[in-house]
Amino acid sequence: MPGPKQLVQREELMSPGHRACAGCLPMTTMRQVLLSAGKDTVAGCATGCVEVVTSIYPFTAWRNPFIHSAFENSAATISGVEAAYRSLKRQGKIDKDINFIAFGGDGGTYDIGLQALSGAMERGHNMLYICYDNEAYMNTGIQRSSGTPKGTATSTTPVGKVRPGKKEFPKALTEIMIAHNIPFVAQATPGYPKDLSDKVEKALAIDGPAFMNILSPCTRGWRYPMEESMEIARLAVDTCFWPIYEVEHGKVRVTRKPKEKLPVSEWLKKQGRFRHLFKEENKHIIDEIQEQVDRNWEWLLKREELAQS
User: Fold this and answer.
1) Which CATH superfamily includes the segment(s) 4-308?
2) 74, 1, 254, 192: CA torsion to nearest 10
3) From CA 280, how far away is CA 167, in angstroms rounded?
4) Domains of the chain: which residue ranges?
5) Mean pLDDT by 10-residue block, N- to C-terminus, for the chain (309 residues)?
6) What values do phi and psi take at 170, rounded to 5?
């Protein structure tokens, strides 16, 4: 797998000058993914933050073939392109090897696009689906999604006397994709770019469907200074709120284990969307989040141990 020095020498497929917010990690995710995938890549993207800031007519920031699909069908769109490609290859009309990647945010993946994603994975298309997970519908006003963490203040889960933010834990989307028995599933974050790049290249090299869930912090929706984006991404991993791991043909491998597992409060306190949790009457929610993080981390380590036995 190439190192960072080799990656930055590759052709940039996401041009500068797009309209993303300063400090936007979803766009850093796009850049890292495309550098890893290379120019022979067809990308599709559901309506959302990334699509809006990169493809406002008549402009585009994509330097590779790009398709904007509706909110709910990025996976279906790219699965159709991949099927057409296989047909053309069988007919001898094309001989180039091409990568196919579908992108969607958490709203377009956890929620609206889950049916199309599940179908594409179950049918076995040779494609990679990437969820850039910024944990809410950021493009339309910071509404909660089923990927939004428990306790988060959003425009549809406001904090007040009635409720202290979102009441539910997030949907375990990565686990849902593992249950599809596809060849490759992984979690990553641009805070650890070499890990992310290696997983993208592995996902594209595998014959069959692959899925990656990439935590991509949003300075606007998460309420932190834009220069802290990478620190926030790394803290999510080092507190084990967002473990980075891969499941290749059913075998689990944790790709980063913190030397010192930090309490989840270290990650929460950096973000304004969780500020209310540090009031005395809401601190029990932090305890509940920590318990859930600990359970998930221990279960992940046990699964890795079982895979190696």
Assistant:
1) Thiamin diphosphate (ThDP)-binding fold, Pyr/PP domains (3.40.50.970)
2) -70
3) 17
4) 4-308
5) 73 94 96 96 97 94 96 97 98 97 98 98 98 97 98 97 96 98 98 97 97 98 98 98 98 97 98 98 98 98 93
6) -70, 155
